[in-house]
Design brief:
Rossmann fold; 11 helices; 6 strands; 54% helix
């Protein structure tokens, strides 16, 4: 049966359906995490995220506090950059950065025989040092970005303020996520192979929309 819903009510109805489906499955989400996990499900139509999303203690509140204080977001894809609500972020003094397409990043990655994502995380660390602003790192594509963040933390070079780690794929994806799960940093991570730039953007937007309520 076709359900007739006014255009302005489609998102609201979608979240109602998500809530109904979660209830049928007997899944109860932690209150603070609920808006984030539900928006990821809304973006992906995949209820497995209700079981695989992992949050460090007080992760949602910490991320919201950082964004409210004007934190910038650094992401590993231009797709996530496009998907994050920049107007909402700007209300709190933040901007979104993606270094992946920068010519100097590509040149350095080629010279060092590492990925552009790894170099981009080094750029993020440098940005944190020069701007003095907190950063939320939203990784939706490249596990090497998470690996480099872990390495810099271990080396004492850079300690991330907050990591959203939801890269998608097969090579080192699960292992890279497990590194962040074990690191002493605030995080939102999806265990397993699933994720993506759309999921990273959805998490950022869920946090921003909660601040706008």
């Amino acid at each position: 049966m076709i359900e007739y819903v006014l255009p302005g009510e489609i998102e609201k109805r979608s979240f109602e359906i998500i809530g109904e489906e979660l209830a049928r499955r007997g899944i109860v989400l932690e209150k603070a995490q609920e808006p984030v996990t539900k928006r990821v499900i809304h973006t992906s139509a995949d209820f497995e995220y209700a079981e695989t999303m992992c949050y460090s203690p007080d992760a949602v509140e910490i991320a919201k506090r950082l964004l409210l204080a004007g934190a910038d977001i650094v992401t590993d894809t231009n797709m996530a950059l496009a998907g994050i609500n920049k107007k909402q972020l700007a209300k709190f003094g933040g901007t979104v950065h993606c270094f992946m397409a920068d010519a100097d990043v590509a040149e350095e990655a080629k010279r060092r025989e590492i990925t552009r994502a790894a170099v981009s995380m080094e750029r993020a660390a440098a940005l944190a040092g020069t701007s003095g602003k907190p950063l939320v790192l939203a990784i939706g594509n490249a596990p090497t970005a998470l690996i480099r963040l872990h390495e810099m933390l271990q080396e004492g070079i850079y300690t991330p303020d907050f990591v959203i780690g939801v890269p998608v794929g097969f090579v080192n994806v699960e292992a890279a996520k497990e590194l962040i799960l074990a690191d002493p940093v605030p995080f939102i991570v999806n265990r397993g192979r699933k994720g993506g730039s759309n999921v990273a953007a959805a998490i950022c937007n869920a946090l921003l929309y909660e601040l706008g309520r």
